[in-house]
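Feature request, filed as a ticket because there's no other form

It would be nice if the structure record came with a short human-readable summary line next to the tokens. Right now we just get the raw output. Example of a typical job, pasted below so the devs can see what we mean:
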Amino acid sequence: MTSHSIPAFSSTPAPGAPERSFRASSWALWLALLALIGGTAVMGAVGATVPPMEAVSGYYFSDTPLWYQVAVLAGFGSLLVWSAAGLSGIVLAVLGLRAGAGRTRAIIAIVLAVIAPVLTLTALIGALGVGAALL
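Raw output as currently delivered:
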């Protein structure tokens, strides 16, 4: 095999090759942002309301009004939606990386989707602490 038989590297796609699509990495970034913002907002709201409700209603969660119990459980249930958005973002980011299009967006999406659960838990604990300190 001589050097003349090895094709030279070219950044342009071969004729007939499909064009690189930035859709996967763009969707990944938006889904990761949705997971981060949605989970953090919901857990911050739940955490901010728990200490005042406990102060008024009683120590146990079952002492609070039914409408509040449903709202808190719905907030925690919505974590399934935010988790699904984050996982979908990771999958689409990996597909974007494999396609070689939108690498920066795909890497940012993976980082945001991985950090989202940590920040969501931090928002819950922080809001609980602030709510308890304000009593």
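Something like this underneath would help us a lot:
DSSP finds three helices and no strands in the chain.
Residues 23-133 form one domain.
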